[in-house]
Write a structure and sequence with these properties.
Number of domains: 1
Helix content: over 70%
Number of helices: 3
Order of helices and strands: HHH
Low-confidence stretches: none
Distance between the termini: 25 Å
Number of strands: 0
Length: 66
């Protein structure tokens, strides 16, 4: 999902203000986070927590602007 969101924004099929982009980031980070927990890759878990937090803040900020 993270690669798909990157592809969509890179080819201007979505922009960063689009909620779909942020939701793809959230779900992709959740999936990677769960996988990292299973593998015990705790640094990666932490990185994905920050990734999700950034996407949630961006999502809420964009909703307020609308």
């Amino acid at each position: 999902m993270l690669i798909i969101s990157y592809l969509l924004i890179s080819f201007e099929m979505l922009n960063a203000n689009n909620p779909r982009f942020q939701l793809l980031n959230i779900f992709g980070a959740l999936l990677l986070g769960f996988s990292s927990i299973i593998l015990g890759a705790w640094f990666s878990v932490g990185l994905n927590v920050f990734w999700i937090a950034i996407a949630l803040v961006a999502l809420s900020t964009n909703k307020r602007k609308s």
